[in-house]
Amino acid sequence: MSSYLDILSGTIIGGMVMLIALTASDLGLRRMYNHNADEILQSNLKRITQVIEFDLRKMGFGVPDDELPNIIQIKDPDRLKFLVQLNMDTDTFYPAAGITTTDAQVDTLEYRIQNGTTITVADSNVVLYEVVRLVKFNGAATQTHSLGFISNNDVFTYLDQAGNETSLTPAVRMIEISLAALNPQVMITPELVSASLGGIADEDFRRQELLRLLQPAYWQNRRLISRNLFR
Fold this sequence. Notes:
The chain has three helices and eight strands; from the N terminus they run αβββββββααβ. With 231 residues, the chain is α+β, with helices and mostly antiparallel strands.
């Protein structure tokens, strides 16, 4: 009888140890996966921001004086279109498919933040927005590039010389850019989702909580200035 109890006790203890080990292993794997996913997310967000920064600093470059009031063509939170000279000479030539010659014509650059895809976690949906870059050389077809996906569509804020938000296009001297991104592949347990979202009926609040669980990354540049806006 004593031996039977010893075997039973050993089996129970062994099972508990194995369960603890498996749980720890699963937690460690999840943390490692999420850490790698976060590094990839940060890298992608950095790449998007570098392209936007590079483009916006060229805003108005090479534009004739009589076109200065029209440098900014469209300015919305989710859309920005502006004039720029992209292939004025060999020193400033912008590499693009099918464009091999220089000219003195004004070109346009445009950013659109548009609905990209919807991801579902538990019973909540999150919309990811696509950052689309459109380059229009004068006399040539528009070239469209997708830079990636972010989780906010209110990207552009327009500021005057004092740094205050303005709705007047001629008063714009700075552009604030805010990006948030998340990795929909991040591993979160159903228990965590249930504990965080359970009992919450408000869909907007549930979505915000879900975004928090998906470990978003943020980037903001408050003083992105093109010197050509001051000419």
